[in-house]
Predict the structure.
Amino acid sequence: MSTYDDGTEVEFFEEPETQEAPDRRRRRIRPQGGGGPRRPATPPHGTVALARLAGLVALAIAVVLGLVFWVDSCQGQSRHDEYAAYMNDLQPIAQSSAASLQDYQKAVTSPKLTLADLQTKLGLWSRQQQEYYNQALKLVPPGPLQAAHQEVLATLQLRAIGLAELANTLAQPGGKTGDQIANQLAQQAQVLNASDIVWAELFKLPATDTLKKLGVNGVIAPGSQIVTNPELITAHSFGEVYGGLSSTTTSGGKVTGIHGSEVVGTYAVSGGQSKQLTTSSPTTVDVSADLAFQVKFKNAGNFPERSIPVTLTVNVFDKKVFTKTERVTSISSGETKTVSFTNLQLPPSAFGANATVNVVVGKVPGETNLSNNHYSYPVFFSLPSNG
C-alpha cells in the first residue's frame, strides 16, 4: 500500500493566535502606595443632564409664578382704577341732584318770593334733574355694576318727575282750597322720598357689596338723599308755604288781606324755673349757665307767614351788651311759636344794674299794626342763691 505524500502537513487542530478584542480597553493598574491625591469619581453622564433639567424646570416655575403675580397685581390695580373712575364721575351728579330741596328750603324763606317764582324754580330744578340723568347716561360703569347703574338713572327720573308735578300743581290750582293743594303737594312729594330709597337700597347697597366681594378697597359708592328733612314735604309745611304765597298777587307783588304778629309773652328760664317778664316792674333774673330767654309770638293774621325775624337785645344803662336774631321759617295763621335765646354771655357790668330786655318780632309783608310786636322789659340780673 503506497502512501501519497504531497509534503503538506495536515493538522486537524490549530491553535489560533491570541488577539486582543478591538473594543476592550486596557485597564490601568493604579500603582500601590503614594502617587498623589485621588481624583473624585466623575458622576455618570445621565445624572448631570437630569440635574440641569431640574434646575431649568425650577427656574421656569419661578418665572411663571412671577408672571402670574405680576399679572394679578396689574389686573387688581386696573380693576381698582376702573371702579374708582366710575364712582368719581358719579359723585358730583349724586351731590348736585340731592341739593334741589335745599334750594327749595332757601327759596321759601325769602319774603320776596311769589307763587309764580316758586313755580318757575320747581320747573328749573326738574330740568336740572333731567340734565343729571343725561350725564349719568353717558357714564360707563364696570360690568358688575351695570344693573346698579340703572337704578341711578331711575332715581334721577323720579326726582325730575316729582319736582315737575309740584310745579304743575302750583300752576293749576283748579279752584281747590289751600288744604287740598297742600295735601296734593305732600302726596306728590312722596316720589322724592321713593327716589332716596331707590338710590340707597338698589344702587348704593349692592354696589358696596360688589366692591367688597371683588376686594376693591378705598372706593366708596356715593350716597344721594334729596329729602334730608321730612318735615319739609308734609302737608302742614306745604300749606304754610302755599298760604303765604297765595296771599300775594302775581302782578307787582301786592299783598292783600290781614297780616301781622303779636308777642304773647317773654320768659326768663334759669335753673329749671321760668319767670314771665313784665313791662311794669323789674323782674329779678337769676343768671346761671343755662339762662335762656324765650319769646312766644302768634300769627295774628289770616295767612301763613314765612321767614319771620325775632330779635332780642339786652341793654345795661342804655348800652347794648347782647343782641341776637333768630328766624322762624314759617308759621300758620293763628299758630303760636316759641323762640329761645341762649348763651347770653352777659358782662359783669350787667349785675346789680338797671337793665332792659327788648323784644321785636319783625314786620311781615302786608302788616299794618306794629303796636303789639315789640316790648321792653326792665330786669335785675343777680347770681342765684345757694339756698
Notes: The two ends are 181 Å apart (CA to CA). The CA atoms of residues 204 and 223 lie 7 Å apart. The longest helix spans residues 45-98. The domain at 261-382 is CATH 2.70.50.30 (Coagulation Factor XIII; Chain A, domain 1).
